[in-house]
Design goal:
The complex is a heterodimer of chains A (about 500) and B (about 55). Chain A has about 500 residues and is mainly α. Chain A contains 23 helices and no strands. Chain B has one domain. Classes of the chains: A mainly alpha (about 500), B mainly alpha (about 55).
Chain lengths: ~500, ~55
């Protein structure tokens, strides 16, 4: 998005060192920090008002009505986006380092690489599949409404359209960051417009008082439990931003310019888009965003909006794929730096190609899918928060971050900080006990605790305790000396 | 060649970060007050919304 232009002749070449200054795991120089507060805010708004916000709103409306939807979206996103705005962004901007590099202090030189690689690749593949199928649904619905066809949600046509969306995303990704920026410049304002038009149509056609009376899509949940599931969905939805924001925040010029745009752009824009999604779902009785446009806007306006949303899914796939591509390239070290963009992009999108052939199983399980991400991302955020903000007081040894030798402070045990991995696993177990990730059924304690919040608390407290009891006495992690280099502007 | 270039450039940048005379270096930390303000605002908003929903 902000990277050097990839010209046609260089498209298939391996990454040049001139690009590495701003795109790879090298620490950034002053000239590379090109984003102001408002530049980062605009990028975040573009990222937040995407088709996944409509999916999120639709999922929330499944459990709660309009008032509770607003409250659960604000509370859930509020909790998770504070963590997402802090833990991947502040280390990355202070030291100008890639997000996966910043993980080395908490998970080890090899552990940080493994965590970033696995999470980025899995989340990008899963999101790409969900969004590609949504794209297929959009075009199937346009065809059904305008041409009178009877394309089913799991038909071969939807699978083919999903596959086409993945291939087109790969083609855009292959052309490099400049083409991503160009596409986003058209799609982001368009999605803002679609969101505002949808909001206006809902209020003119249904009205606030009638909206408040509409029941949730699934009326068979008790109100308290349904509200807590909605909060959990939104905590999980906010945590899903984790792989995307750190590498963007590193391009800003101060810690404040890396933090507050997340709260303004990511939080507020996500809340607005998800609330519009929830209202639309309640008003139209469907949690599938591709079912909303034509009933709301009519054949012409709704049809156009639906086609636009269909294409907009492709830009969301590309944005997520790009973040994963950067992470995978950096995380695979020399091998990744040697591979051309098209090959890396293809590798990232291959799992999505498989998943689009199971459209109903993938698309109809959005809540479970977000929950699977939160099982790992919640504990991960808590561990990073404890490591960087509590144990290290926002200070890292930047030279040690790039030192893979066994005597490096961040080498821990064979390159892995076992304390962090144990803490993360414990948090994941707590989550799974409170909310079964397979059938998405909560236990009774969930109605007071949710699953993500206790899972994060357990991971954070365990990491703090074990680090003080085990890591520090063993002289690992660079915590005893708490060395810092070059903090000239503190 | 690429990997060697990468190491050389990395060393150059780390030296710049550690050189007190250089313009390059670590940016200042996020003030704790900023975190506190956002947490307090979110907590108050959450309480307000809960009251609006359930009272």
């Amino acid at each position: 998005m902000v990277l050097p232009v990839s010209t046609t002749s260089r498209r298939f070449e391996r990454t040049a060192l001139t690009e590495a200054g701003s795109t790879s795991d090298l620490p950034l120089l002053k000239k590379d920090r090109i984003w102001s507060f408002w530049d980062f805010s605009a990028a975040n708004i573009g990222l937040a008002i995407a088709t996944w916000a409509f999916l999120q709103g639709g999922a929330v409306a499944y459990y709660v009505g309009a008032k509770e939807a607003v409250a659960s979206i604000v509370i859930g996103y509020g909790i998770s986006i504070v963590f997402v705005a802090l833990v991947p962004c502040i280390p990355a901007v202070r030291y100008g380092i890639e997000q996966f590099v910043s993980l080395r202090s908490s998970f080890g030189t090899a552990g940080g690489r493994a965590v970033m690689l696995v999470l980025s690749a899995l989340l990008a593949a899963a999101w790409a599949a969900v969004l590609a199928i949504m794209c297929g649904h959009a075009f199937a619905n346009v065809s059904n409404e305008l041409l009178g066809t009877r394309i089913e949600s799991d038909s071969l046509t939807v699978k083919f359209m999903g596959l086409t969306a993945v291939v087109v995303s790969w083609l855009i990704l292959m052309r490099g960051p400049k083409s991503i920026e160009t596409v986003n410049k058209v799609v982001s304002p368009g999605l803002v417009l679609v969101t505002l038009i949808m909001l206006a149509l809902i209020f003119t056609q249904i009205g606030w008082s009638q909206l408040l009376e509409l029941p949730p899509l699934a009326a068979d949940f008790d109100r308290h439990m349904a509200f807590m599931i909605a909060i959990e969905l939104n905590v999980a939805g906010g945590l899903a931003w984790w792989p995307n924001v750190g590498n963007l925040a590193r391009l800003t010029r101060s810690a404040r310019a890396a933090y507050w745009p997340n709260m303004i752009g990511l939080f507020l824009a996500s809340v607005i888009a998800a609330v519009v999604g929830a209202f639309s779902a309640l008003a139209l009785g469907s949690d599938d965003p591709t079912q909303w446009m034509i009933p709301l806007g009519g054949f012409v306006l709704g049809g156009l909006a639906l086609v636009f949303v269909g294409f907009a899914n492709i830009t969301s796939i590309v944005a997520q794929g790009y973040a994963a591509l950067i992470a995978v390239r950096g995380g695979t070290g020399n091998l990744g730096r040697r591979l051309p963009w098209p090959v890396l992009g293809g590798l990232i999108l291959i799992p999505a190609v498989v998943l689009v052939f199971f459209p109903d199983a993938t698309y109809n399980n959005y809540g479970r899918f977000v929950s699977w991400g939160a099982i790992v991302l919640g504990p991960l955020c808590a561990i990073q928060f404890v490591d960087f903000f509590i144990l290290r007081r926002q200070r890292l040894d930047i030279r040690a971050m790039y030192d893979n030798r066994p005597d490096s402070p961040y080498h821990y045990t064979g390159g892995f900080n076992l304390v962090a991995f144990v803490s993360m696993a414990s948090g994941a177990v707590v989550y799974a006990v409170l909310l079964d990730p397979i059938d998405y059924v909560p236990v009774d304690a969930f109605r007071w605790l949710t699953a993500s919040i206790p899972s994060m608390a357990v991971s954070g407290i365990l990491h703090l305790t074990l680090t003080r009891a085990v890591t520090v006495p063993r002289g690992k992690g660079g915590l005893a000396s708490r060395s810092e280099t070059g903090a000239k502007r503190d | 060649m690429m990997d060697k270039d990468f190491r050389v450039e990395l060393e150059r940048r780390l030296d710049l970060y550690e050189d007190p005379e250089s313009e390059e270096g670590v940016l200042g930390p996020l003030p704790a007050g900023d975190i506190a303000i956002s947490v307090v605002v979110l907590a108050l908003s959450s309480l307000g919304l809960l009251g609006w929903c359930f009272l």
